[in-house]
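Budget justification aside, the reviewers requested a transparent look at the raw inputs and outputs of the sequence design task funded under Objective 1. We therefore reproduce one unedited record. The lines immediately below are the structure tokens for a 240-residue chain.
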């Protein structure tokens, strides 16, 4: 159990360090990547997931997200007794990853005046604030993620090799695809830990000129992915 939690923690920490790292790199003032744009963000998030999967995959299956853990458990492919320990490790890993991003880009946080930009390097902010439509966006995007992960892992797709760490590559492209196609409305959290851990870090860290952490919105990237994962698991059980 401790080994699994340790690697789930490390994998999620790497995911957030690289994922929130690209948000900071393209958004904060005076970085060399300032203004690099959405394509860079979506590709980098996909590669961040790939790196996290390679780190933790051999030991934990590399969930890196409460939505994945719950979705796999609902689909009968993961032990319910491990769900809460995995979620705890994911949340802590996401928090630590966000703290590392802040330390890495500390000079650039200090040089950036816009508090919304600073918050956006930690957690998601909707492009247009419409709570129920934002929730629907997270549900649909996470449904696609979890259903495709289940489908990728189906033995008919990997009849001889099995997934193993090879699963890192298709999942990376899946994350890139979701970001490019569905990510522009809410910033595609897809993962309660990816949003809540860094949001808590933003709340607690002594960030110069920061705003509030927008806890009023935080239930959407927390609940939406869980609902999407549950729907994906239900459909998978019906059709496979």
């Amino acid at each position: 159990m401790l080994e699994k939690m340790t690697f789930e923690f490390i994998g999620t920490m790497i995911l957030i360090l690289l994922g929130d790292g690209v948000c900071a790199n393209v958004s904060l003032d005076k970085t060399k990547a300032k203004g690099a744009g959405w394509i860079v963000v979506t590709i980098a998030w996909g590669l961040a997931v790939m790196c996290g999967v390679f780190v933790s995959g051999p030991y934990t299956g590399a969930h890196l997200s409460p939505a994945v853990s719950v979705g796999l458990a609902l689909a009968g492919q993961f032990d319910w007794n491990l769900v809460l320990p995995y979620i705890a490790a994911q949340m802590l890993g996401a928090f630590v990853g966000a703290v590392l991003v802040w330390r890495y880009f500390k000079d650039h946080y200090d040089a950036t005046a816009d508090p919304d930009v600073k918050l956006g390097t930690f957690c998601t902010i909707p492009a247009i604030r419409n709570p129920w439509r934002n929730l629907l966006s997270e549900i649909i995007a996470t449904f696609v993620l979890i259903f495709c992960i289940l489908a990728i892992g189906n033995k008919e797709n990997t009849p001889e090799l099995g997934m193993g760490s090879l699963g890192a590559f298709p999942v990376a492209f899946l994350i890139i695809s979701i970001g490019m196609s569905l990510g522009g409305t809410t910033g595609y959290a897809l993962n309660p830990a990816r949003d809540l851990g860094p949001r808590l870090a933003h709340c607690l860290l002594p960030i110069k000129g920061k705003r509030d952490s927008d806890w009023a919105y935080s239930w959407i990237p927390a609940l939406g992915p869980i609902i999407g994962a549950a729907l994906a698991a239900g459909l998978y059980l019906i059709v496979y």
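The chain has one domain: 2-239. The chain is about 70% helix and 0% strand. Computational costs for records of this kind are itemized in the attached budget.
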